[in-house]
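RETRY 2/3 - previous attempt timed out on the joint model. Re-submitting the same 331-residue input unchanged.
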Amino acid sequence: MTAPKKTMLSAVQPSNRLTLGNYIGALRNWAQLQKDYDCVFFAVNLHAITQRQDPKELREQTRRAVATYIAAGIDPKEATLFIQSEVPQHAELAWVLNCYCYMGELGRMTQFKDKSAKAGENIPVGLFTYPVLMASDILLYDTDLVPVGADQKQHIELTRDIAIRMNNAYGADTFRVPQPVIPQVGARIMSLQDPTAKMSKSDPDPNGSVYLNETDDQIRKKLKRAVTDSGSEITDDESKPGVRNLLTIQSALTGKPVSEIVASYAGKQYGHLKVDTAEIVVQSVSPIRAEADRLMAEKSFLDQILQTGAEKARIRAAKTLKRVYEHLGLR
Ligand code: TRP
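RETRY 2/3 succeeded.
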């Protein structure tokens, strides 16, 4: 008998378009891992409404996020792939967890502090309890591992604290306690405009990121405008974060070690590095965009995938919720 696969879960906010950083740092790795892990992936549109969204755009971006996952190699037959709002148990368990999470804990969340500072006078309660819905996302699927960026680690710690607290009160089998998996810093893709900051889909400057739905020409233009450093020699060192970022992107997409790439640029200039990097990025992104576009256009096909995914997810989530309700005396 083989050991049961570990459950790996991750989610993406559909409020912004996915970037090359998401692809290199997350999506393509998951495509590799989906055979060895029981993978659960979804688009968190309920999280997205903690900030105002245009309904038409939200609907479109949510579908686009799922289509992009598939285009990047996630197999909906292998993984459980769905849209958060189609699985009502996420909101139901979130209520329960709200009753076991403390105001003080949520007030300490860095992301809440940042976002609420920008929200003005009326801070939505949902922004405050955002991490509780995230804990619900994770705990509903008896998750073992949650691959996330370093900025989300605090939310995973909170999820663990709530799970352990409830396990102590209601029995150790109430929740499986998840663990974060934080990618190593070296492989991080940085902004093309500020190579000391991470390439982020919530960056207000669209020139900092390559989006996975951009045309080849848009990608080429962005890389041409990428900020490089003073000097002219192509070397991999700390004082040249812009050059290093382009080398990292090339290395990540070609599999060649950075040192080999550096050696191939002896006597060449930044311009060469930018042009080559652009072509390598185009080669990776172009097929993903084409496939995501095709899925978006084939409405009923994508609908079918989403329906099957949501059904799979609901069955699993309902089982966990029933167990929790029984432990708490709610049924
Ligand atoms: N908060 C995460 C982010 O902003 C998105 C998210 C919601 C998530 N639920 C999750 C990530 C569950 C991992 C697991 O990136």
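The chain is about 55% helix and 5% strand. Closing ticket.
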